[in-house]
Amino acid sequence: MDKLIYLDNGATTFPKPEEVYKFMDYYYRSFGVNPGRSGYDLCMESGEIIENTRKQLTKFFNGKDFNRLCFSYNSTDALNLVINGMLQEGDHAITTLLEHNSVLRPLYHKSEYDGVEVDYIPVDGDGFVDPEDFPKKFKKNTKLVIVNHASNVIGTVQPIKEIGKYCKEHGIPFVIDASQSAGKVPIDIEDQFVDIVVFTGHKSLLGPTGIGGLYVKDGIDIKFTRAGGTGVRSAVKTHLDEYPYRLEYGTLNSVGVAGLHAGVKWLEEKGIENIHNHEMKLTTMLRDGLEDTEGVILYCMDDLSDHIGIFLFNVEGLEAQDVGTFLDVDYNIACRTGLHCAPLIHEQLGTSTIHGAVRFGIGPFNTEEDIETTINAVKEIAKMKKEGKISGNLPH
Q: Are 173 and 116 in contact (CB under 8 A)?
């Protein structure tokens, strides 16, 4: 079989750096016990990796107190902790049409069942929100603003510093979903006025699945909505108030933390700016190769500044799913099709009525050869559609 061209890095990065595989194996074989639950040496060494990773990620986001770096399973898990722990009946929240279902669904549940009002900020034709739109929506009962830092659908990086400044001026907690951006573009929660940054490990931080977390700035508190074991102060009947235990429940995915530690270390050694520049060079190459191709529709690709390596398109007259199948079966190119768990941005783009679009997610291990092959593949599919050699089944 020909080499797989993996362009689904927006879903999860693959492959991971070799250092991640090796360190996870080393950690689990050497320290694979329950960290922090006992006082013997192996347990203490396992816990040290956890604490070192807290410190590493706190520094990565320019946080101040590593105890306020809390681990979760992924971004969805962390966002549920934030939304359910900060909003109650009578509150108002603001978010955007760019959001992933990890934000949209919890907010919908709060709106539908718990009496929380939610406003949604649209994007312009290039895929960016206007920071000026946020203070226009502020109310006395606005308790939370959540913004997708980098869109998993169109790749636009939002002006979070400007939004965060407005939130700070009005005393409204500001949360960013950094699922796609963490590891691709710098995040400085102090400079960008961010109160909570939510991240997942398995995307651009190059760790494994099943690990993520959030950093909560001092002065921002999230009510705990779960309870369970923490390994410390076991006689206390209620869940512990102090961080990180406040937002951590039961045994951590310690081998996942170890993999995340190795992924972030690899990023820091290579330089996230270097990796981002590499990915955007390939994204630009892809855009330039397809933008004038008859029958290929590109979305929000005119100006690639303030973007990550996410590329969205359709072949006119074909279902996105069918294009993905052709790319997979005939060209051995892996991509993602459909609504990408972000239905509202597809509604604004006009792609929701045609079952979504095709997404390429470019990663650090993709090459110019990968992109050249992909450009030719999409052109061939578009040409075959135009010549009637393949048929479509799009709704009218």
A: no
